[in-house]
Design brief:
five-stranded mixed β-sheet, 10 helices, globular
Length: about 375
C-alpha cells in the first residue's frame, strides 16, 4: 500500500453542508469520494457501453455495498466553518457589483426581508450573525448568504491510501479532478472550484494547480481511456488576478444571455394565460431543472421540472488558474448527458408537457456571447 498526500486549495468559496448544514460547513471524505466517483463515471461512460462494467471498475477503486474498495480517502486539517459572518451581497438591481455571483449562487444566496417575522424565525442563525456585525440593529433587507461556506483561501489535507498497482490510475483520476472538479452546492456554476496539489515528490504530473491541456490529455490515457469526444472544453477569453472577479463576470454573461432569450418567457406567459397548449417549448430547460418563471405584473408563476424532481445541467463552469498571476473560467459541456423524456410545466393547477430541449441553446450561447474559445485535443 502507498499513501499519497495532497493539499486542497479552494479557488472560490464552497457551500458544503455538515452535520448541521444550517450552521456549519464541513469538508468530509464523502465529498471527495463522490467527486472521484463522478468523474470516473463521466470518463468511463464515454467508452464503456455496459453500465454494470462501469460499476465494476468503479467498485474496485471505491467499493460498493457488497465489498470495500481498494482506495481509502481521508480529509485532515482546516475542514469546517461556522455561519458567524453576516455576508450581504451588493445586488440591488443590475447596478450591484455582486449580481453575477448572486445569480450563479441562487439557493445559497437569497433575498431576505428581515422586517418580516417569518424570515427572522427561519434564518435565526443568520440574524444573530447580522446582529453581531450591526450591534442590536436588525438589518432590514438584502441578498444574504444563508448557508455556511468554506473560504476560497481555506485549505485542508487529503490522504489517499492505494495499492501500488493502482497508483498510476488513482493519480490520473485525482489530476483530472484537480483540473475539472468543484464541490458543494452550485459547484456547476463556479462555486467550490478547487485544486488538489500533491505534497509528495515524483508525481507523474506537474501542473496540478494550473490549467494544462496536454497533461489533462495524458491523464485520460493514464486512467485507461482517451479524451472523451462527448465532452467539450472552452476557455473564457478574459482573465483577472482575482478569481471572484472572474465568477462575477461569467455570472453576468450567463445571466444576460438567459434573460435576453425571449421565446421562453413568451411561451410560458402564453401557457399561464391560455393553458391550452399540449406542448410548450422552453429551450433554457437544457441548462438544468427545476426552473421557475415569475411575472411580477400579473403576480403569477410557473415551474418547469421532471418527474424525478431534478435535472443537473450538462454545462459546468469552473474557475481555474492560468498561471501564478491570472485566473479565468473553464466551461465544460457534457454532450453525452441524458435529457429526461418527461418534462412538464405547471401553473395554478394547469399542466403541459415541455418539448425535450436540445443543445442548440448552448451553441447559441457560445456563438452569441463570443466569450469562450473551444479547446481542441487533437
Amino acid at each position: 500500500m502507498e499513501k499519497l498526500e495532497y493539499k486542497i486549495e479552494f479557488i472560490t468559496p464552497a457551500f458544503i453542508g455538515g452535520a448541521d448544514p444550517g450552521e456549519y460547513a464541513e469538508l468530509r471524505p464523502a465529498s471527495f469520494v463522490g467527486l472521484f466517483r463522478y468523474w470516473f463515471r463521466v470518463i468511463a461512460g464515454a467508452f464503456v457501453q455496459e453500465s454494470k462494467n462501469i460499476f465494476s471498475l468503479e467498485s474496485e477503486l471505491f467499493g460498493s455495498q457488497d465489498e470495500a474498495g481498494k482506495v481509502w480517502v481521508k480529509v485532515r486539517g482546516n475542514v469546517n466553518s461556522k455561519l458567524d459572518v453576516c455576508k450581504r451581497w451588493q445586488a440591488e438591481r443590475d447596478r450591484g457589483i455582486d449580481w453575477g455571483k448572486v445569480y450563479m449562487g441562487f439557493g445559497n444566496i437569497f433575498y431576505i426581508d428581515f422586517s418580516k417575522k417569518r424570515n427572522r424565525d427561519r434564518y435565526k442563525i443568520l440574524l444573530e450573525a447580522c446582529k453581531k456585525r450591526e450591534g442590536k440593529k436588525i438589518i432590514d433587507k438584502g441578498y444574504f448568504s444563508i448557508k455556511p461556506w468554506l473560504e476560497h483561501k481555506q485549505s485542508a489535507k487529503l490522504e489517499i491510501i492505494t495499492p501500488n498497482y493502482l497508483k498510476r490510475k488513482v493519480e490520473a483520476l485525482l489530476f483530472i479532478t484537480s483540473q475539472l472538479g468543484a464541490v458543494g452546492s452550485r459547484s456547476r456554476r463556479g462555486w467550490g472550484s478547487l485544486y488538489i496539489v500533491p505534497t509528495y515528490n515524483k508525481s507523474s504530473f506537474s501542473n496540478w494547480n494550473y490549467w494544462s491541456k496536454e497533461e489533462l490529455k495524458y491523464a485520460f490515457k493514464a486512467l485507461g481511456f482517451d479524451v472523451p469526444k462527448d465532452i467539450e472544453f472552452y476557455l473564457m477569453d478574459y482573465k483577472h488576478q482575482d478569481p471572484m472577479v472572474i465568477l462575477e463576470e461569467v455570472g453576468r454573461i450567463f445571466k444576460k444571455f438567459r434573460e435576453k432569450f425571449p421565446p421562453d418567457y413568451e411561451n410560458v406567459k402564453n401557457f399561464i394565460e391560455n393553458g391550452n397548449e399540449k406542448e410548450v417549448e422552453i429551450k433554457r430547460a437544457y441548462f438544468g431543472l427545476p426552473l421557475r418563471f415569475r411575472f411580477s405584473k400579473s403576480n403569477k408563476e410557473a415551474e418547469v421540472n421532471t418527474n424525478t424532481g431534478r435535472f443537473a445541467s450538462p454545462v459546468r463552469f469552473k474557475i481555474i488558474r492560468l498561471n501564478k498571476d491570472y485566473y479565468t473560467c473553464l466551461l465544460i459541456h457534457m454532450k453525452n448527458t441524458s435529457i429526461p423524456d418527461k418534462i412538464t410545466i405547471r401553473s395554478n393547477g394547469k399542466k403541459a408537457a415541455v418539448i425535450k430541449p436540445s443543445d442548440d441553446i448552448f451553441i447559441k450561447f457560445i456563438n452569441k456571447t463570443g466569450k469562450f474559445i473551444k479547446e481542441e485535443f487533437r
